Amino acid sequence: MIQLALSVMILWTGILHAEMKTDKEYGSQSMIAPLKKVLVKRPDHVFGNADPALWHYTAKPDLAKAQAEHDAFVNILLNQDVEVIYHDEYLPGLADAIFVHDPVIVTDYGSVILRMGKPLRQGEEEAIERKLLACGIPTLAKLTHPATAEGGDLLWLDEHTLAAGLGFRTNAEGIEQLKHALEPFNITVIAVELPYWQGKEACLHLQSLISLVDEKTALVYSPLLPVWFVNYLHTAGFTLIEVPESEFYTMGPNVLAIQPGVCLTIEGNPVTQKRLSDHGIVVYTYRGDEISHKAEGGATCLTRPIWRGFTP
Fold first, then answer.
1. Is the pLDDT of residue 301 over 90?
2. What is the spatial distance between Cα 218 and Cα 34, in angstroms, rounded to a whole number?
């Protein structure tokens, strides 16, 4: 904790600069505010040559198909007037780096560089920090050993409330360091215990179970959520749209909101899509046989929102 406090003090000048800059184009303390700028990483030979046994993929990706899927995915965002920035640093040995959501979160005051809970992914954090700095986004804080936290476990319920999944990828120390870093900015971090499910090798993030799709509307797979958290959401006024069990296994709950009431998700979950549509949600879909199903990462995982906000 002392080490983190010192890091925050060292970075304070950068924070003050961010607060004084009135035309800054970053900040994403929401899961649904209009997506203006996003970071992605196109699959390269590192992903294409990934050993499925090592990376817990269902099969070896076909790189050409993966790149075509990713290009089509990006085109959907471009057609929604989202600015897309490529994280194009070559990262040998880091096959999961296409899932840029996980190594960092971007607040209104700068980025918080996380520390990956999956050991094979450690090393992604420094690379994504370099990219964000090059984009003019200051570093607010960095998690340090023994803390771990991944972006897939971090869900903004509103601009001042961050839910953090406590499980194999995000530990208690990670949540404590996040609390310490964000408390000065009136941000509350609440821990949400995750189940054991299929063990540490499987990728179960909090966002594997819940996505926000509109103001006070969430898509959920409630059987794996704690009772208290479901009750918390109801008390907070959320409408919950349930994902059926059969579509939980095909990433039904993993939805990226492009703006309130408009979302992007993987194709092939018709019941979930109908339930979203019945609640007035516009649903765009992408093909993700290579970039999602084989590698256990959906629409949210493939993107790191850099800037979300409503036009004044």
1. yes
2. 16
Q: What is the DSSP string of 235-271?
A: HTT-EEEEPPHHHHTTTTT-EEEEETTEEEEES--HH
Q: 178: how many CB neighbours lie within 10 A of its CB?
A: 25
What the block records as the tokens of 139 is 């570093």
CA-only gyration radius of the chain, Å:
18
Tokens of 245: 């069990």
What percentage of the chain reaches a pLDDT higher than 90? 89
CB distance 54 to 242 below 8 Å:
no
Q: For residues 91 and 129, give the distance between their C-alpha atoms in angstroms, rounded to a whole number.
A: 13
The answer to whether residues 261 and 279 touch, using CB atoms and an 8 Å cutoff, is no
Closest listed residue to residue 198, CA positions, set 55, 53, 56, 54: 56
- Does the pLDDT value for residue 16 go beyond 50? no
pLDDT in tens, 218-234: 999 999 999 999 999 99
Cβ–Cβ under 8 Å, residues 77 and 258:
yes
Distance of alpha carbon 123 from its chain centroid, rounded?
17
The ranges assigned to domains in the chain are 2-308
287 pLDDT above the threshold of 80: yes
Sheet with 217-220, side-by-side order of all strands: 210-214, 217-220, 239-242
Residue type for position 181: A
Q: Does domain 2-308 have CATH number 3.90.650.10?
A: no
d(CA 229, CA 77): 31
Q: pLDDT value at position 198?
A: 83
Q: Are 115 and 54 in contact (CB under 8 A)?
A: no
pLDDT in tens, 183-229: 999 999 999 999 998 877 778 999 999 999 999 999 999 999 999 99
Q: Are 176 and 1 in contact (CB under 8 A)?
A: yes
